[in-house]
Specification:
The chain is built from 15 helices and 20 strands. It is an alpha/beta fold. Helix 1 links the parallel strand 1 (9-15) and strand 2. Helix 1 (19-30) runs parallel beside helix 12 (399-420). The two termini are 38 Å apart.
């Protein structure tokens, strides 16, 4: 049973029902903060793993690490899980948690404004208004598809859709298909649809590094051990975590350490592609790690197929039935798939959140970029907590680890408020500035800044406000305690307006 009529007031309003929203709901309930509501614009839980159902959709983080630490999944079928398994896992966790009676689906947040007089967030949704003491955003950075600004794309007469909004009613069999983009989604889509289509044009702006995907089905013995021997499951998870944590972050600041991975990427090309011209097109010219490193065993072989053309000339325009490149070549198509990623440095929810003084989060961030304190709170926005906020993204490990670290920090803030009678907590400007100055100083020596590429990690100011530049265990340690000394703490007011 889920919420059918929205409550007028709640202590905590959580936006989004993906990993962040589900985890937050469970931990709020465990902490005795039972007066909460989770709103989700979709019709069920799952977040990005519910929305992204394109062919071949799968995770590039090993299965054993891609789950809540407090809700391990003993039933993964393989070492890297496909989208249906991850969605089913999240649905099962939510159902078993006993919190779904506080979830409202098909409920989109339209606007949220901090009211100083009542010391509450006043939130408008598509199903009514809610007043909340705290606003916790779990909308994430992979929720709003990024559409390309291409002349004439609105005039295309065939089927066109974003990879994150895949139209399963469209049969691609025997069709001429164009895919724009060569990111994580595209390298899963292309091998999945290539055998069925008549012809596929893949439009590449920058060649990605693609290393082999060490994926396999678990054996029967492994599945039995993982299911019935918790110590084995914990050991497997620990080994995967430290395997990634000790290697990948190191080459972010010293590209020489990336030599084995770079060699594997080049070998991946050589194994599948014999044509020298195509090899040259797919070979990156920047440092490994500057852009997201992808994993696939089938991408390059799909590109080498007779019915696939890799197009590296810039797109000039789209007509009613074709794509025209800058060299004047017109390539007729029936279906256009846009695989151009998400709005990560300008999270759309920021437009709808107005803090102290009525300024929106997007207006504040437009001046200096997406800046917050510990990726979770923001000066000028009391009692606003963001899960998967600024500089919390990863290129090597599980975001679930980061989310759990942030959830613990939020719970610490709530305990501080409850134990001391505070109505609101808000990070002070000085600690927030110091936090971000330190992050950007560390960014200067990373491959993301020095690697010779432009990526979706960087915002309009040229700053990396997306990724975390240190070890994940460092992030957890820094968020292990709610540091009230770096916050403005507002007492609860009486009805007359004086402190209680």
């Amino acid at each position: 049973m889920t919420v059918t009529t929205l409550p007028q007031t709640v202590d905590h309003l959580v936006v989004g029902a993906g990993f962040a929203g589900i985890g937050m709901a469970i931990k709020l309930a465990e902490a005795g903060e039972g007066d909460f509501l989770v709103i989700e614009k979709d019709s069920g839980v799952g977040g990005t793993w519910r929305a992204n159902t394109y062919p071949g959709a799968a995770c590039d983080v090993p299965s054993q690490l891609y789950s809540f630490s407090f809700a391990p999944n003993p039933s993964w079928s393989r070492s890297f899980s496909a989208q249906p398994e991850i969605e089913a896992y999240l649905r099962g966790v939510a159902e078993r948690s006993g919190t779904l009676d506080r979830f409202a689906f098909e409920t989109e947040m339209l606007d949220a404004a901090w009211d100083e007089a009542s010391q509450r967030w006043h939130v408008r949704t598509t199903r009514g208004d809610v007043v909340a003491r705290t606003l916790i955003s779990g909308s994430g950075g992979l929720s709003a598809p990024k559409l390309p600004d291409i002349e004439g794309i609105e005039t295309f007469q065939g089927e066109v859709f974003h990879s994150a909004r895949w139209n399963h009613d469209v049969d691609l069999t025997g069709k001429r298909v164009a895919v724009i983009g060569t990111g994580a989604s595209s390298i899963q889509i292309v091998p999945s649809i290539q055998p069925a289509v008549a012809h596929l044009d893949l439009y590449q702006r920058t060649a990605p590094y693609v290393i082999p995907r060490s994926d396999r089905r678990y054996t029967r013995i492994e599945r039995l051990l993982l299911k019935h021997v918790p110590a084995v499951r914990r050991a497997y998870r620990t080994a995967v975590y430290w395997g990634r944590e000790t290697y990948v972050p190191a080459f972010v600041v010293d590209p020489r350490i990336a030599a084995p991975a770079k060699k594997a990427a080049r070998a991946n090309i050589a194994k599948a592609i014999t044509d020298p011209e195509l090899r040259a097109k797919v070979t990156p010219t920047y440092a490994l790690g500057c852009k997201r490193v992808l994993i696939s065993n089938t991408y390059y072989s799909a590109l080498a197929a007779d019915n696939v053309d890799l197009v590296t000339d810039p797109i000039a325009k789209v007509t009613g039935d074709a794509i025209v490149t800058a060299d004047g070549v017109e390539r007729p198509i029936d279906v256009l798939v846009v695989a151009t990623g998400f709005q990560t440095t300008e999270q759309p929810i920021a437009e709808h959140i107005r803090g102290r003084g009525g300024r929106s989060l997007s207006q504040v961030w437009a001046e200096r970029g997406m800046l917050s304190y510990k990726g979770t709170t923001t000066h000028g926005f009391p009692n606003l907590f963001q899960l998967v906020g600024a500089n919390t993204g990863l290129g090597h490990s599980s975001m679930v680890f980061m989310i759990e670290s942030q959830i613990a920090y939020v719970l610490g803030a709530l305990r501080t408020m409850k134990d001391n009678g505070y109505a609101a907590v808000e990070p002070r400007q000085e600690p927030q500035d110091a936090w971000n100055a330190d992050l950007q100083q560390r960014m200067k020596r990373t491959v993301w800044s020095q690697g010779g590429c432009s990526s979706w990690y960087l915002d309009a100011h040229g700053r990396n406000t997306t990724l975390w530049p240190r070890a994940t265990f460092t992030f957890r340690k820094l968020l292990s305690r709610f540091d009230a000394e770096n916050y403005d703490l507002t007492p609860v007011r009486t009805t007359e307006g004086a402190p209680a």
